[in-house]
Amino acid sequence: MSTPLRNTFFSHTILNHSAMRFAMVGAIGFLVDLSSMLLFSLWLSHTAARGLAFWVAASSNWWLNRHFTFACPTNNKESNKKAAVLQWMQFIGSSMLAFIPNWGCYVLLLTLQPLVSNPTISLLWPYLAMIPGVLIGMIANYLLARFWVFSSYTFK
To answer: Which N-terminal stretch is annotated as signal sequence (predicted)?
Structure first.
């Protein structure tokens, strides 16, 4: 299969749907979240590092979703700046709502760490425990972003 055909197939099937673009941004956001947590956990407890990493990841996800996932409806730079601030606040607010089950799952899984007998898994447990909550939060985040934060945008 030639490259142009592959690019056409990819762009017309995978990237054509906002949910798939949102999931791709979410995957990048997870890497931002994880790397931020790793960095912050050098100086803070795992739970404090997890909370701070949320803000970094949520802000990067907002920017990526604004510029990649959802189409921008207007080119007016001044109104875009004002709208961007409101939109960021809405996105952070919706992310905080979706973070509730994410955080709950993380804290619950942290309580199970003493049950892990493998020393390597036990060492990695605070980071592995992030994964299920992130997946749960992604569904809520997409619905809130799609139908509230970016509701005035056009979708596919």
So the answer is: none
